[in-house]
Amino acid sequence: MTSLHLRVAIVGAGPAGIYAGNILAHSVSDAGGTVVIDLFDSLPAPYGLIRYGVAPDHPRIKGIVNSLHEMLDAGSIRFIGNVEVGRDLTIDDLQERYDAVILATGAIRDAALDIPGIDLPGSHGAADFVAWFDGHPDVPREWPLDAAAVAVVGNGNVALDVARMLAKHSVDLRSTEVPDNVLAGLEGSAVTDVHVFGRRGPLDVKFTPIELRELGEVRDVDIVLADEDFAELELAAGSSNQLKVILRTFQAWRTRGTTGASRRLHLHFWHAPVSVLGEERVEGMRFERTAADADADGIVRATGELRDIPVQAVYRAVGYYGTPVAGAPFDAVRGVIPNAQGRVIDTAANALPGLYATGWIKRGPVGLIGHTKSDAMETIGHLVADAIAGVLAAPAVDGDVLDLLDERDIAFTTWDGWLALDAHERQLGAAHTHTRERVKVVPRDEQVEISRADTLALS
Questions:
Q1: Closest Cα partner for 206 from 269, 151, 164, 254?
Q2: Where are the domains of the chain?
Q3: Burial bucket for residue 297 (CB in 10 Å: 0-12, 13-18, 19+)
Q4: pLDDT band for position 237 (50/70/90)?
Q5: What is the DSSP code (8-state) at residue 247?
Q6: Can you list the positions of beta strands (E) in 181-322?
């Protein structure tokens, strides 16, 4: 077998892109070849949704960040941030300079909830709220938290993150990396009641036992459950241990009851959203009560019973929608880049040589980190196979892509720049009145300035 010597561009520096780069580096090296890997991201900092899509009170995420850090710090992958492919560079620019391009742009936008009134003022996407409290540089610095009663529609991990952050007291977030503007906003929150709605029953939730248990650990917040939602509820034979833990957690909360806490988190099941109520802004939500379909496992049927719940804000957490890349095919219905096991395909289902996809943009926004790794292994396996088979076209343009970025006056950031920004954020945390691991720098231009300080000093 001829030794491989490849140049590969990866678009998206979240877990999907980093895992793909790491697996590619090892695959080619183990085969006795060499590979140059450039990892592009539109943000100045790496890690994607791990940095900007996970609640700041999740300490276990640190382990994932440490693992991703080690992969990038090993030197086999070059991080190039603050570069948007489709604007600063085109797909053609990349394909001219690399043997292959892997798209790992993920899914950062909210999926639609197509019901009347969903666009009223006071109705928000969960992804937008998560981006705000995670300090994403491209969202407004302020968030309206003037509603006393809030509805969160969805029964996944994101819905619970949103509900927990809305119900939690700001003082209990001071030790996290939450940005100062977010702390200030949460300190003025008027929220007293957060209602989480799922259209199925308690045994069909999509969140994990860990996420659920975290709700019960929030200080001065009561969990409120309705007895009617648990009527005639039994675990099926062969139910998973995860489901058993979830049901035990629910039963413990039902037994405990309420304590008179200043905030309440209500978990509603068997509620299908019908419409958002209000004239000029959100005043409530209308739901239809559902029930289990005796003839179809996991399917619910409508009962015709409508219920109106007074709320002043609504957060839809019904899933994410993929992020397209200009110049690449996109399935607008599924929100993914059409592909066959990672090989990007055209409308006739023909593979486009040298173009690949991995992560949520490949399969849709489902699954955990483990799925992301297996996704990357599949995609990289096909890329390497295509390289061995001679399917990939050699780069037509020689030279470093950084020279092209300089020519276009693009203020790109690097791994060394991230290390400088990381150190700066940690220093801000250490100097804070309430000692914190870090305080995130939010403005994009400030992130870029800190990340490029050494580069500018040398120029």
A1: 269
A2: 5-108+321-410, 112-318
A3: exposed
A4: low
A5: H
A6: 193-197, 221-225, 263-268, 271-277, 284-292, 300-309, 313-316, 320-322
